[in-house]
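Internal tracking record. Fields below are filled automatically when a chain is submitted to the structure queue. Please do not edit lines marked as system-generated. If the sequence contains nonstandard residues, flag them in the REMARKS field before resubmitting.
Queue: standard
Priority: normal
Entity type: single polypeptide chain
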Amino acid sequence: MKLLEKKSGIVVGATSGIGRAAAILFAQEGAHIAIVGRRADLLNTLKIEIEQGGGRAIVIIADVTHSADITRMVSTAKDAFKKLDFAFNNAGTIGNFAPMLQQSEEDWDHTINTNLKSIWLLLREQAKAMSDTGGAIVNTSSWLSQGALVGSTSYSASKAGMDGMLRPAALELAAMGIRINNINPGGIDTQMTREAFGHDSESLENFAAAHPTGRMGRVEGVANLAAFLLSERAANITGQAIATDGGYAIPGQRG
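SYSTEM-GENERATED OUTPUT FOLLOWS
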């Protein structure tokens, strides 16, 4: 049986990178999915690809920094599928990845609102929609919730907040039959990672080589972990922030 056979859910931030890979995989694993993002052209292209592979998807245009969009997103998905079994919350921003003295208050607010406040809002609405049947939620956090790079002050704070929120949320939602976990990727070969390093090839190569595995991860690997955590095979896992980082966060001498 496929991991998500007969399940219905939401992939937030599905236009590119990890979210796009997850949407394709979830559909292959038998799920009906609502793919969510701000770019209609990219979502419609993804919908076509999913349906050509035999899956089912609907497109929802939404901005997670707007609470009204989140409410509409969740209600639209549940109305379309008659139930909501899972959600993968993957939308986020790298923000102004620069030393804090080069950041503005607006930079801080944008990163915190997009990466942290939006997760709190998403969890509330998704939990309401799952309250009658139970379900599972996975959020994309980061190794930077506990680690650091020059320029990561606001981004690290947003992800640390997400991991801090995870544990009490898991306790509260367990009574409703809802599991919640975070995935904490290390270096994953995505546009966001390349932006964080200013698209500098040498810096990216050095970062990849600093992983004990000798390379950055692939979006498909994160998608596979998310699919497992959302499935019944992970029925006893909740409140966990799980690293998929090629060993990067293991402390010790580098270089």
